[in-house]
C-alpha cells in the first residue's frame, strides 16, 4: 500500500475549509450567531489570560495538584466535544462516494484528522496566544510562556485526535450492530435525557468533578507539570512523561483512525434488516391505529409515526424547548419539590411537540410521493384525519399521564391537577388539526440542512411560529386559571375567587383549541384535495 500523498491531503483540507465557510455564509443568522459565540468565547479566554497575568506572579508548587485537575478536566472535555462532533455530523465529507473513488481512504482520513485538529485548535486560539503571553509576562520568563504554549497545544491536539478516533469507534458499533440500529431512536432519546439531566442538575457538576479528579491521577495531567516546569519545582520526569504520552496518543490515534474510518465508510450497514422489518410490519396493517380507524386515515397516521421513527433527525427542533426546563428541573432536584410551573410546561409542551413533530408539515413530509398520494384515492379528510389521529393517539396519553404525575409531585391540589391533565390531553387532540392546517397553509417542500452533513424536510419557520403562537394562546386561559397565584390575582381583578376560574378557564382553552383544530383540519383537507401537480 503506497504512502498517502500529502498534496492530496492538503487539497482535501482546503476544499473542506471552503465548503464549511460556504455553508456558514448561506445563512446570515448563522453567521451572526457564530460571530457572537466565538466573540463570547474569545472574551472569556482573554479574561482567563488577564487572571493569569494578575495572579500567576506568585505561583508556587502548591498550585500543581489543582493545575493537574484542570488539565485532566480540559483534556476530557475536548475529547468529549470532538467525539460528539463525529457522532453527530463530522464523520464524512460532502460527495464522499466520489472522493473515495478518487483518492485512497488513508488520504481522506489524514485530511479529516488535520481538519479536526485544526477545528479543535481554532476555538482555543485566543487562549493559546493570551495565556502563554500572560504567564510569561507575569513570571518574567519567556521560557515559562513557551512551556505553557507547548502544554496547551499538546493538550488540545492529543485530545482532539483521541476524540476523533473514539467517535469513529462508537459510530462503527452503531452502524454495524443490528441491535443498536434497531433501537437507535430510543438510545438517542435516552442520551438526550441524560445530557439534559447532567446539564440542569448538580449531578453534572459532581460527575465533571469526579472525572477531572480521576484523570488528574493519570499521566495526561502531567501536562500541568510541563506548563509550570520553568517557574516551580515541578517534576521534570513528569513533564517528559507527558510529552512522551502525547506522542504515543497522537501516533496511536492516527494509526487506529485508518482502519476505523475505512470500516465505517465501506461498511455493510445494519439498517437493511430494519427496513425489511418495517416493510413487513407496514404491509400487514396500520399498526395500533387500525383499532381507531382501519381505513385510509389509519394508514396515514401510521405512516406519519413510522416516518418520524425512521428519520428522527427531522425532530431535533422539537427538543429545543426542553432546554428551558433547566431552572425548574434544577430547582426540583435541589429542593425535592416539583415547582408548579413545571406542570403547566409539561401539559403544553407535550401537545405542542406532538403536533409539531407529526403534523406540522403534512404536504412537505410526503416528499416526492406527494403526487402519488394525491392521486391514490385518499380523500383530503382522511389525509387530515390521519395526522390528527397520530397526534392525538401518541400525544394525549403521554400528556395526560405526564401532567398527572408531575402535578401529583407538585404543591397543586388534586382538583387542579386533574383539570390540567384532562386539558393537556384535549390540547393534543386539537393540536393535530391545528398543526395540519397551519402546515398545509405554509408548507415546505425542499430539504434544508439540519446538520453539516444531513438534510431533511422540516416545517418552515413561519409555520412553526404561527402554530406555536396559536396553541399558546389557546392554552393561556387554563394556565391562568390552573395555578393558585395567578388565578387569585386575576380573580381579584374580576371580583371572584381564584378557584372559581378553574372550570371556565379549562372550558375556554378546550373550546379554543377545538375551534382551531376543526378549522385547521378543514383547511388541511382542502389543501390536499386541491393539490395540483
From TrEMBL:
Provide the alphabetized UniProt keywords: Membrane, Transmembrane, Transmembrane helix
Q: Where are its TM segments located?
A: 28-54, 66-87, 108-135, 147-169, 181-198, 238-266, 315-334, 340-360, 388-409, 415-440, 461-483, 489-519
What is the recorded name of this protein? ABC-2 type transport system permease protein
Q: Which organism is it from?
A: Halarchaeum grantii
